[in-house]
Amino acid sequence: MFLHTMALSSCNRYLVVLIAFLLQCIASALSPFFRPEPSAHSSAYLTQDAKWMSQRIDHFTLQDRRQFEQRYYEFVDFFEAPHGPIFLKICGESTCSGIPNDYMAELVNKRFNQSGMQNPWFVSGVSYSGALSAWFQLKFPHLSHGSLASSGVVQAIFNYTAFDEQVARSAGPSCSKALREVNLLVEEGLAKNATAVKSIFGAEQLKIDGDFMYLLADAAAIAFQYGNPDVLCEQLVATSHAGEDLLAAYAEYVKTYFGSSIDTYDQEHLKETKAFSNSGDRQWWYQVCTEFAFFQVAPANNSIRSSLIDTKYHLDLCANVFGKGTYPEVDITNLYYGGANISGSKIFFTNGSQDPWRHASKQISSPGEPAWLIVCHNCGHGSDLRGCPQSPLQLEGDASKCTRPNAVHRARHEIMHHIKSWLPTGQRRMSYHLPE
Fold first, then answer.
1. How far apart are CA 315 and CA 335, in angstroms?
2. d(Cα 194, Cα 184) in Å, to the nearest integer?
């Protein structure tokens, strides 16, 4: 049985919400910053049939009995009632349109939904929801039999310079050099005529130069994060070597391949408190500004990110959007959950070698918490579940386009092995053969 649950804006609250939900049935969500939404084509989802349940707004104040309607999805085609295992797939911090048809959704259910004793639960997620799945298993090990934290960002980091350093390594010398040249051209353009240079990218609405440079930095990072490095680098490097218009080439890439809305980077948009389609932008930034930071500041040397994006830029954004005094309590978050030194059991961590977020995850195995790095040229965020590239969606997590498909297959073999060992004895009937 497969169920999808919606995260709230606070990770502490989310875990309590999830507990209350586990005692009833289940719910659902997705993530705008860490993960792309599948296309609306029906084959991209196992189901888009939304269900609803009444959920408490405040789980910490007993006198507050207010409720809201929480959406969830369930997929039961492979479920062998009444005792098959239940895979709870957590999304993230944005709207959820259904259960994506990735590797976890399709294959794990086929292999493991077999009759047994009582219903065991297994929790999974990618990125922020990967962290949630790890934290759920950490805090409530009596309620689940294991967790898969795919690219799970469990380590809150104040100044996350390692993000850009990884982008530079993944890009390689020639592409990194071209990206630095783009930054210089843009910064020169901002000094002369900010509106004109922003208009090249269709981003005139971004009045704060730092917001605009953040957009450009994300546009580059996303190519490596989601397994499309050649889409960015081949054209950019060729343009640079030919001495042609590098700024125009990068603008074409941004407008053609970078799917995020300009609104996402507009602080005026982030101030909007009414619920609408992109409300998740504000929710995620609230967590950034109060719990995680993940401030993607420019490294001191050889940065491919503009120096305009520094610590002050992030703190000013937090104050401007959420009020003076808003500050990320990174140490408290890591103290409560353990950060990369999380001390739980039956938690499997996976990361892609080119993913700039992997340095906020657990990358070194410890007893009860195996960590697996999938190494290939286009292995990024959630490669174990999404295959390659990670965006757009690869049906059933097809890994055939990964430059080293067997690297993904071996990670999946390990995942299967550990799930098998963590499930009750009566539900371990499965096998996984590595493709030739």
1. 22
2. 13
Mean pLDDT in consecutive groups of 10 residues from the start of the chain, 436 residues: 50 30 29 42 80 91 92 84 82 78 69 60 93 96 94 98 97 97 96 96 96 97 97 97 96 89 93 78 93 96 92 98 97 97 97 98 97 98 95 92 97 93 66 47
Catalytic-labelled residue, pool 97, 127, 144, 150: 127
> Is there a contact between 283 and 291 (Cβ–Cβ < 8 Å)?
no
**159: number of Cβ within 10 Å:** 17
Which candidate in 145, 269, 359, 381 is catalytic? 381
CA 180 to chain centre: 26
Question: Which of the following is catalytic: 145, 355, 384, 409?
Answer: 355
With beta carbons less than 8 A apart as the criterion, state whether 386 and 394 touch. yes
The tokens for 420 are: 């098998």
How far apart CA 243 and CA 234 sit, in angstroms, is: 14
* Helix 246-257 vs helix 229-241: crossing angle, to nearest 10: 160
pTM, 2 dp: 0.87
Name 116's Cβ contacts closer than 8 Å, sequence gap at least 6. Answer: 83, 84, 85, 423, 424, 426, 427
Active site residue 355: yes
